[in-house]
Automatic annotation (TrEMBL):
Forms oxaloacetate, a four-carbon dicarboxylic acid source for the tricarboxylic acid cycle. This is Phosphoenolpyruvate carboxylase. The gene is ppc. It comes from the Bacteria. HAMAP family: PEPcase_type1.
Length: 908
């Protein structure tokens, strides 16, 4: 048997399951390459793999480099495909083994953290909570993962689908099967891998917003929605009050609504997103209603029914005489027809299972649909008790309450600078003489408050506006129409990027007033939630002051409504790029606590929206653990969190994984919300404040104060090449400049990851410790007494373990200014090594991640595929930057980027 060039060596610290899965998939990939491309091609991969096995700790692999230097461009593309494919397959093998480990862990008793909402509720009951207490907990809950479409997902949807099928087959293979079935599964795996090899890994053209919507909805349709249905079915039966459960978990999205710096997002994409989402959920409703119709052939000859049900059934247009005494079926027929009418109105298409056009009135809003279902529930309960209702009907009601006709609430996001310019033009075109951009903050706020105090519009249909203003107004008009069509819940929040002042909150209210989403007057009201986004370290510090100014305004109370809850978004990404890992995380945590305190003092609830990414530097990590690490008093049963890029496929790519993550998130919110708010230990606060400030200074000294750093970043990472890749619809930078402050946080993190620095996940920590004069004993006390710091250390250690300073040094060698490049790199490497030393000293470890063997195994497995891809990418970058502009070189670079991103399992 030919030795697999891509199988793991025995020296790798992998578990039996992971090793077996990787060996099998690696063997099948080599077999497929040999079958399709010939033994010579398979031999080239084997030769490269064996050379990579001799890489030193310093990243030196002379045999591999010699081989790559002699490759033709075609051969470089071929090897890039092979290594990138192996990265994807290795991930599948690890995930299959991981799901098995998770299942075993969930079955073990004694875990102090509830892994499911049912467990969390059981713990509350054990602590003395009554059913009335639990009802209050559920009524206050609002848990919303929000899917976003930043340029981080480099895989095509077709590849994700192929990987899903391979994963399914590998899962089947885990069970004890007869030899013939085992052979059949192996052959099917071979076919899928062979087809994967013949499938393009990359996108030939830049992805569009429409593509992003379609890709995300594919995962929603196949895994997230089924997981949500399963959870509501379980919750209705196990923790609901008489089978009823509040809509405590919902999904949100930015796809089609996030226009901050994105020229392709407008009113049309908003309409497309909601229409596409609506089609998914309406089809599901239709299928469930048809199932109920089949099951509820209940005759009035044998059971009494409510008057309300008879009235509902009387509206049906079913000509069959055989169903005249079956009011449940007649009512469900009417409901189905009205859903069909809703679909025709909102999407222009029939729902699934519809056989003819209906002329009944569509539901005006989702509540009317729920009300009709509730009539059926109550009639069944009255005639036979709760047990006759059935899980499917209760689940349908629960999902309808959570999803409405829109499936996921769509946020609108825009930059405060755009609002300022738009307001300025409206005043100019209205002939008021107001030059808004020239006003100071106090004058702006006074003017905007006055504008909200009356109903006079600033906009005229007879006035021509500039392109930017016209686009803003058109998008808001589309949002107003969406609210009329789908109901208020279809828009999750209006998010204001770059919020820093009170006027930043008031400006979108004035703009929304122009389209009828805000009503002016003495007591103005709003159909939408307004959510300022505090992103930089400075803005996070000033956020509580801005919130206080807003809540002190009488108009804030009427705008927030009868049960006032103010939503505020916290930015992990830009704050990290602004001030580094420690200062960013500390700024977010302190800001969250201060905002919650300020809101409570003003008698208002708070809902925090955490703008996290997939990488450690952007707040990444398991969502449930992130919730549990939030400061006490900041969750309050309500939380929203972004799920970005490749993390969507990883966390929600299949139904069991989606269910586990959603359930765990809901459980964590319950647990975190029950913690008492205690006055922070002054010593802990003092130490963390000193560390954050010192780390901020150390980070800024490198990134913003060193005049050579900007050129270093652009030459020692593949940022220039990444900007040109088709990995997202959004531009990589807000402007055409090369300044670090203008670059978006995602490509910033992506570039450091590709070059194996992982700098945003740890830089500034070690210099901060030294500048603050903190001893190991003090840091150990801090980690033992402060969950936040322990979580910060754990995530930082992962970033340190994923980095590879030896390979990073090879990227530094690409810089034309070697004197400055080597000087800066020595600073970075010294910080890296010292950070690792301090992290290990705090927990008494001997090597990174030695206290988390599964995670260490995952990092080692990734390195096995990623390291040779880095060496190949380095060779290709040298060719490209040396003047070779062949399309094959660009293509090969793109493949290495995809492979490295897949292997590291986070891009930005």
């Amino acid at each position: 048997m030919r030795d697999s060039a891509l199988s793991l060596g025995a020296s790798r610290p992998t578990s039996r399951d992971v090793r077996q899965n990787a060996n099998l998939l690696g063997d099948l990939l080599i077999e497929a390459i040999g079958y399709l491309e010939g033994e010579e091609a398979a031999g080239l991969v084997s030769k490269a793999r064996k050379a990579a096995a001799h890489e030193s700790e310093e990243g030196e692999a002379p045999g591999l480099d010699h081989l790559f230097e002699g490759l033709s461009n075609d051969q470089a593309v071929f090897l890039a495909r092979a290594f990138a494919s192996h990265s994807l397959l290795a991930n599948i093998g690890e995930d299959v083994a991981g799901r098995r480990r998770h299942a075993e862990a969930d079955a073990r008793p004694g875990d102090e953290r509830a892994r499911t909402l049912v467990d969390a509720v059981a713990a509350l009951k054990a602590s003395g909570k009554t059913d009335a207490d639990l009802a209050k907990v559920f009524a206050a809950m609002n848990v919303v993962p929000v899917l976003t479409a930043h340029p981080t997902e480099v895989r095509r949807r077709s590849m994700v689908d192929r990987e899903t099928e391979i994963s399914r087959l590998m899962t089947l293979r885990r069970h004890h099967l007869p030899a013939d079935l085992e052979a059949d599964i192996r052959e099917r795996l071979f076919r899928e891998i062979a087809l994967m090899w013949r499938t393009r890994l990359y996108r030939p053209e830049r992805i569009t917003v429409k593509d992003e919507i379609r890709n995300a909805l594919s995962i929603v349709r196949t895994s997230i929605l089924p997981a949500l249905v399963d959870l509501y079915e379980e919750w209705s039966g196990k923790i609901g009050s008489h089978g009823h459960i509040a809509p405590l978990l919902k999904m949100g999205s930015w796809l089609g609504g996030d226009r901050d710096g994105h020229p392709g997002v407008n009113g049309d994409t908003l309409k497309l997103a909601l229409s596409s989402q609506s089609r998914v959920i309406l089809d599901w409703y239709a299928g469930e209603v048809r199932k109920l119709w089949s099951n509820l052939a209940v005759s009035t000859a044998y059971t009494p029914v409510s008057e309300e049900l008879l009235a509902l059934a009387a509206q049906a247009k079913d000509p069959s005489v055989h169903r005249l005494d079956e009011p449940y079926r007649l009512a469900l027929e009417l409901i189905f027809d009205r859903l069909t009418a809703v679909s025709q109105k909102l999407t222009g298409q029939w729902v699934a299972y519809a056989t003819s056009r209906t002329d009944v009135e569509p539901y005006a809003h989702p509540d009317a649909f729920v009300a009709d279902l509730q009539i059926i529930v109550e009639s069944l309960e009255a005639s036979g008790g709760e047990r006759l209702v059935g899980a499917s009907l209760r689940t349908l009601v629960a999902v309808a309450k959570a999803c409405g006709f829109h499936l996921m609430s769509l946020d609108l996001r825009q930059n405060a600078d755009v609002h300022e310019r738009t307001i300025h033009e409206l005043y100019q075109r209205a002939g008021t003489g107001v030059r808004y951009l020239e006003l100071d903050e106090e004058a702006r706020s006074k003017l905007l408050i006055e504008e909200l105090s009356h109903q006079r519009p600033l906009v005229s249909p007879f006035t021509a506006y500039g392109e930017e203003t016209a686009k803003e107004l058109a998008t808001m008009q589309a949002a107003a129409q969406a609210v009329r069509d789908y109901g208020h819940a279809c828009i999750g929040a209006y998010i204001i990027s770059k919020s820093a002042t009170l006027s930043d909150i008031l400006e979108p209210l004035v703009l929304l007033k122009q389209v009828g989403l805000v009503w002016g007057g003495a007591a103005p009201r709003s159909s939408l939630k307004i959510a300022p986004l505090f992103e930089t370290i400075e803005d996070l510090e000033n956020g509580p002051r801005v919130l206080r100014q807003w809540l002190e305004l009488p108009i804030s109370r009427t705008i927030l409504g009868d049960r006032p809850v103010q939503e505020i978004m916290l930015g992990y990404s830009d704050s990290n790029k602004d001030g580094g890992y420690v200062a960013s995380r500390r700024g977010v945590a302190r800001g969250a606590s201060a905002l919650a305190f300020e809101a409570d003092r003003m008698g208002v609830g708070i809902q925090l929206f955490h703008g996290r990414g997939g990488s450690v530097g952007r707040g990444g990590g398991p969502a449930a653990e992130a919730v549990l690490a939030q400061p006490a008093g900041t969750v309050q049963g309500r939380i929203r969190m972004t799920e970005q890029g490749e993390m969507i496929a990883r966390r929600f790519g299949d139904q069991p994984t989606a269910r586990r993550n959603l359930d765990g998130l809901a459980a964590a919110v319950v647990q975190s919300s029950q913690r008492d708010v205690n006055r922070p230990d002054p010593k802990v606060e003092s130490a963390m404040t000193a560390l954050a400030q010192a780390s901020f200074e150390g980070y800024r000294a490198l990134v913003y104060d060193d005049p050579a750093f900007e050129d270093f970043f652009w030459s020692a990472t593949p940022i220039g090449e990444i900007v040109g890749l088709n990995i997202g619809s959004r531009p990589a930078s807000r402007t055409a400049s090369r300044k670090i402050e203008d670059l978006r946080a995602i490509p910033w993190v992506f570039s450091w990851s590709q070059a194996r620095f992982m700098l945003p996940g740890w830089y500034g920590f070690a210099s901060g410790v030294e500048r603050a004069g903190l001893s190991t004993a003090q840091l150990q006390d801090l980690a033992g007494d402060f969950d936040f710091f322990a979580s910060l250390l754990s995530n930082m250690e992962l970033a340190l373990a994923q980095s590879h300073m030896g390979i990073a040094a090879r990227y530094v060698a690409l810089s034309p200014d070697q004197a400055n490049a080597q000087r800066i790199f020595e600073t970075i490497k010294r910080e890296h090594d010292k950070a690792a030393e301090i992290a290990l000293a705090i927990r008494g470890g001997s090597s990174l991640l030695d206290n988390q063997p599964d995670l260490a195994e995952s990092v080692a497995l990734a390195g096995h595929s990623v390291d040779p891809l880095n060496h190949l990418q380095l060779e290709l970058l040298a060719r490209r930057r040396g003047g070779e502009q062949a399309e094959d070189v660009r293509l090969a670079i793109q493949l290495t980027v995809a492979g490295i991103a897949a292997g590291l399992r986070n891009t930005g």
